[in-house]
Design a protein that fits this description.
By secondary structure, the chain is α/β, with parallel strands linked by helices. The chain contains 26 helices and 22 strands. It folds into four domains: 213 residues, Spore Coat Polysaccharide Biosynthesis Protein SpsA, Chain A; 101 residues, no CATH class; 159 residues, CDP-glycerol glycerophosphotransferase, N-terminal domain (Rossmann fold, 3-Layer(aba) Sandwich), CATH 3.40.50.11820; 179 residues, 3-Layer(aba) Sandwich (Rossmann fold), CATH 3.40.50. 40% of the residues lie in helices and 16% in strands. It is found in: Cell membrane.
């Protein structure tokens, strides 16, 4: 029999589900199954479950035709489970690496009905807060098992389903199921503890409980939080049926604590609903109060309990306001102290900067220009990428929109003829940023840019992510040195639209940049040209580069290592050129971060041509027969052409540990793979670059990442954003 069945419900968790599944399947313990329940999720969660099931027989997906909610979805998974124990893990949480052997040992050694494991709250800002385990059990119980009557303090551990494993036959025998509605854990977890003859506690952190910035029920206001009362009513009905009156005082205290927790969270109960919620708390207090009373907690918490008992809402509300004002005053004083140093720095700025800032604020008071769209790419490095493709489509489909580009002064000469522009840092630059109706960028605009009501910010990104991005970089501090994540989120909060090229990107951006933008999963506008390219266009590009039509062209384009400035992968262009032969040509292109180091493009030397200064990388793709890259998003773009791709990853192990990756390129490559220079040269000598195995890998890769790149992505963006059309 399988030891552990994981039941993983999935609803709107596409940004987190892969991490959850990987955390289970990559454990050094394989005696598990995963029942993934797609609760009619409108995002890509169901496709992710199917993808994992296709490559790991331990994953068993269940796809529901209608949304039933978390509790019923767990029940459906429970009905299909075959394991001796069931662990209900939510799709946005994840296990701690290496925890499962310890869990399995405790299960086999003690055979509990319920085993509670420790957890941490993993906040979106990478802060972790511990659970109440140490407070409840200052001296860990060790391997002993007990009942609630033996140790009633166990009820004070968080009452969720995901921090405990439960013997499946025990659940079946006692008829324990999840009720529908919010707070479904309440009417499942407490009865399970009260019914269990053998409860165990593993004093080891095994699960990361994700505290999401957006999308979590605990951060959603609404009247559905009143459903907590019905869940507690179920608990007391079961107690009456089972005759467990001896536990009533301890359970009652937990009910009052939970109600106060829900009411005290300002992100759950709207101001107009607080009085009715308190009234229901008072009614339940009176109805379920044990005849002999219960242990009222000391201090301020006890005061709250007594006010609930008396139904004194006005006093309760007034005291809460006093505490809020006091806390706000403390925060204001702290912020004032923290503002001293920035204020001193601001006074030292040059007069020109001050004048420009005042000018920008003045322009913000003027009306938005309803026809103005501002474009930028790669921190003002010029005219390129998705913004350029959208600009061109807008000129054709929405000629009433006036497009203006922002560029650095040293990049003005790279603009195509006829493109209107302003130079970054000038008065005109501040004016268009203040007055624009649309702001389109493949990175973020500076922090000073104000999100005006009525303006529309479009984040196009600049590649399908291999390396981790956004908030996920907090776990890889070597590659995120100096990043201000709070500032990043303020910039992300300006986005109205996020353009993605495939479902995988959508999922990763949702996790890395949690905010309330609308995702446009339409393909990448910059790849429209590649999708529509003809053989004649490729020949013209080659001729412009001085490359003959019969030459075999390899483009080598490694990515930048933020955590290793100045480091370059070991690569010998002369040896590569020798392998390619007399008819071969090697094009070498550095990352755009090194654009200030680039030298003007000159003639090829011995068949090797440095094309780092070539502005339109799409031309280079069209000219190349093969792309050699490492962790660059170039592979996703080049795959649109359906030509051979080689992943050259000499520092793969170090890179994924230090920088972090979303995709295992060695396991799911777009073609042949080499991890050292001799191996790379052998791929070309042997012809494996374009062999049958490489072709199969590329076909799978293209199906997964390039399905939307049909040449119409920019048009779809323009029609939605500029013309207001809906698909």
């Amino acid at each position: 029999m399988t030891l552990i069945s994981f039941v993983v419900p999935a609803y709107r968790v596409q940004g987190y589900l892969r991490e959850c599944l990987d955390s289970i399947l990559d454990q050094p313990f394989a005696d598990v199954e995963v029942i993934g329940v797609d609760d009619a999720s409108p995002d890509g969660s169901g496709e992710i479950l199917a993808e994992y099931a296709a490559r790991d027989p331990r994953v068993r997906p269940v796809r529901l035709t209608e949304n039933v909610g978390l509790g019923p979805a767990r029940n459906i998974g429970l009905d299909r489970a075959v394991g001796e124990y069931v662990w209900f893990v939510d799709g946005d949480d994840w296990l701690v690496p290496g925890c499962l052997p310890h869990v399995a040992d405790r299960l086999r050694d003690t055979r509990p009905d319920v085993l509670i494991v420790d957890h941490v709250r993993a906040h979106w800002n990478n802060v972790g807060t511990r659970s109440a385990m140490r407070d409840v059990f200052p001296d860990p119980p060790g391997p002993e098992t007990f009942t609630v009557r033996d140790r009633p303090e166990v009820l004070k551990l968080l009452h969720t389903a995901w921090n405990r494993l439960i013997r499946r036959e025990f659940l079946v025998e006692r008829g324990l199921r999840f009720a529908p509605g919010w707070y479904e854990d309440v009417s499942f977890s407490y009865p399970a503890l009260m019914a269990a003859d053998r409860i165990g506690v593993l004093d080891r952190v095994c699960l990361n409980y994700r505290q999401r910035r957006t999308g979590a029920i605990t951060r959603t206001r609404g009247d559905r939080h009143f459903e907590v009362f019905a869940q507690w009513h179920r608990v007391f009905r079961l107690m009456d049926r089972w005759g467990t009156d001896g536990l009533r005082p301890a359970v009652f205290e937990r009910m009052v604590w939970h109600h106060l927790t829900v009411l005290g969270n300002g992100e759950r109960i709207a101001p107009e609903l607080r009085a009715p919620f308190f009234a229901q708390m008072h009614a339940d207090y009176v109805h379920f109060l044990p005849p002999g009373g219960y242990p009222v907690p000391p201090g301020a918490e006890g005061v709250k309990h007594r006010l609930v008992a008396a139904g004194r809402w006005r006093t309760f509300s007034a005291l809460r306001e006093v505490h809020r004002v006091r806390d706000a005053a403390r925060g204001t004083a702290g912020r004032a102290r923290r503002r001293v140093a920035p204020a001193l720095r601001r006074t030292a700025r040059r007069a020109r900067d001050t004048a420009l800032s005042e000018y920008y604020r003045a322009e913000l008071r003027r009306p938005i220009d309803p026809t103005l769209a501002v474009y930028a790419a790669y921190w003002y490095r010029g005219y390129s990428c998705n913004p350029a493709a959208i600009y061109e489509a807008a000129r054709r489909l929405a000629p009433q929109v006036r497009g203006v580009w922002i560029v650095r002064r040293d990049r003005v000469a790279t603009l195509p003829p006829g493109v209107e522009y302003v130079v970054a840092g000038t008065r005109e630059y501040h004016r268009v940023l203040a007055r624009a109706h649309w702001l389109v960028n493949n990175v973020n605009f500076p922090d000073f840019v104000h999100k005006r009501p009525g303006s529309v910010h479009v984040q196009t990104h600049h590649g399908t992510p291999v390396k981790v991005m956004g908030l996920d970089q907090q776990r890889y501090p070597v590659g995120a040195m100096g990043m201000n994540f709070a500032g990043l989120l303020r910039r992300v909060d300006r986005w109205d639209y996020s353009v993605t090229s495939n479902s995988f990107s959508t999922q990763m951006w949702e996790r890395a940049y949690p905010a309330d933008y609308t995702t446009l999963e339409v393909g990448y506008p910059r790849n429209d040209r590649l999708a529509r390219a003809t053989a004649d266009e490729g020949r013209q590009v080659r001729a412009a580069l001085g490359i003959g039509p019969d030459e075999y062209v390899v483009l080598y384009a490694p990515t930048h290592r933020e955590h290793l400035p100045g480091w370059r992968p070991p690569f010998d262009p002369d040896r590569m050129r020798d392998v390619l032969g007399a008819n071969g040509r090697l094009l070498m292109r550095s990352h755009y971060f090194h654009d200030r180091e680039r030298q003007p493009r000159g003639p090829a030397a011995g068949g090797v041509l440095d094309v780092s200064a070539y502005d339109r990388v799409e031309d280079l793709y069209l000219a190349a027969d093969v792309l050699v890259t490492d962790y660059s998003s170039a592979m996703f773009d080049y795959a649109v052409l359906d030509r051979p791709i080689v992943v050259y990853a000499p520092d793969w192990d170090a890179y994924r540990v230090a920088r972090g990756v979303y995709l295992d390129l060695l396991a799911e490559p777009p073609g042949a793979v080499a991890v050292d220079l001799p191996g790379l040269l052998d791929l070309f000598r042997s012809g494996a670059v374009a062999g049958e195995a490489a072709d199969r890998a590329r076909a799978v890769f293209r199906a997964r990442f390039c399905a939307l790149d049909d040449g119409l992505a920019a048009e779809r963006v323009v029609r939605r954003v500029f013309l207001g059309e809906t698909p």
